[in-house]
Give the backbone structure.
Amino acid sequence: MRNKIKQYREKKGISQGGLADLCGVSRQTINAIENNKYDPSLQLAFDLAKTLGVKVDTLFLNEEEI
């Protein structure tokens, strides 16, 4: 599953560490998600979307849709 977290995070001027703190995870977790090496739990996906002010389906793209 691909995502647009980095683009939305940078638009908001939030560092990986800042986003991690806001979502209660490590900076390494955010890095792994942004680099498509880790798929977040459903709860974390919703937390990321809420923190970035977008809908979950805006952040995550199904590989089949690309």
Summary: The chain has five helices and two strands. Residues 18 and 27 are 8 Å apart (CA to CA). The chain has a mean pLDDT of 94.
